[in-house]
Amino acid sequence: SGSVTIPILIYHKTPADFEAQLLQLQAKHYTTITMAQAACGIQKTCSLPSKPAVVTFDDGFSDQLKAFGLLQKYNMKATFYLIIGGDKSSHCIGIERAAGSPCGDSYLNWSEVKTLAASPLIEIGAHTVDHLALAGLNEADQTFQVVTSKQRLEQELGITITTFAYP
After folding, report:
1. In this predicted structure, what is the pLDDT of residue 51?
2. pTM for this one?
3. Fewer CB within 10 A of the end CB, N or C, for the chain?
C-alpha cells in the first residue's frame, strides 16, 4: 500500500462555522482520529482508516467546550493540547490560571478538562506550562516546560499523555 496523507486541522477558538466544517469532513468521507492514532499509523503499529483526518485544539480556551459539544454530536475525535499555567506566565493563562484574574481569555478548568478526558472521542495532549517560546529558553527551563506539563496532566487526569504540541 502507498503512503497516506493525513490532513491536520488546527484550531484555537471554536470557529462560528465549525459544525459546517465537521459536516464537510463527513461529506468527504474523512474519519477523524487522534494525534496518537496518527502517530501509531505512521509508525505502522496500528491501522488507519482509509481517509483519516486529525482535528486539534491548542491552548485550552473555555470556548472550546462548544467544539466538544459538536464533536460529540457527530461522533468525531479530536486532540486538545492544554496549557497548565504557572509562574512564568504570571498564572494568567491555562488550566491553573488564578481565579478571577484580569488576564483576558477564559480557560478550561480541571473539572472541564476531566469531562473532555473522560470522552472516548478526546485525546488530551501537553502544550507546556506557560506557553513560552521554547527556543529562547535554556535547557533546564525547556525541560521544565515540557515535562511538568505532561506530569501535571497525568497527575490530575490519571491517564498517560503521549503527545505534545510545540507552542
Report:
1. 96
2. 0.96
3. N
